[in-house]
Design a protein that fits this description.
Elements (H helix, E strand, L loop, with lengths): L1 H22 L10 H15 L3 H28 L3 H13 L13 H9 L16
């Protein structure tokens, strides 16, 4: 949900800055070099909206990072594994000469997603046990 919000905000910053750039289009001394024109656009946007341009860039970076983390979590769900288990399996397979270690809980892509979306019910139990002294 956070990635959708950051994507929405970065897009709204983009639309706002594009509108501001269209207003200032006649004031920018355009050149034949694309690199110089990009520099002029960035400098013009920073001059016109000194807070909106960096905020839009920051929101876009946040959006990209959240997309990466979302895809990473989707991969982990598809394999029915956690990051800690993945690190343990990699360490165990490097220590073991027999080859790669398989994940016991991996039931396949579809069954893993069904188990994630509709988790099985757990029987009622006490959250902890008290040791009798």
């Amino acid at each position: 949900m956070t990635s959708l919000a950051s994507g929405y905000y970065s897009y709204s910053y983009f639309i706002f800055l594009r509108h501001q750039l269209r207003i200032a289009n006649n004031l920018i001394p355009w050149t034949t070099s694309k690199l110089q024109n990009i520099g002029l656009v960035v400098l013009s946007l920073l001059h016109i909206q000194p807070m909106a341009a960096p905020a839009g860039f920051a929101m876009f970076c946040v959006f990209l990072m959240l997309i990466f983390f979302t895809l990473q979590q989707m991969y982990y769900i598809s394999k029915n594994i956690t990051q800690i288990e993945l690190d343990k399996y990699e360490y165990a397979s490097s220590e073991n000469d027999k080859g790669p270690i398989s994940n016991y809980y991996d039931k396949g892509l579809l069954k893993n997603w069904i188990e994630f979306i509709f988790p099985p019910k757990i029987a009622k139990h006490e959250p902890y046990k008290i040791k009798n002294e």
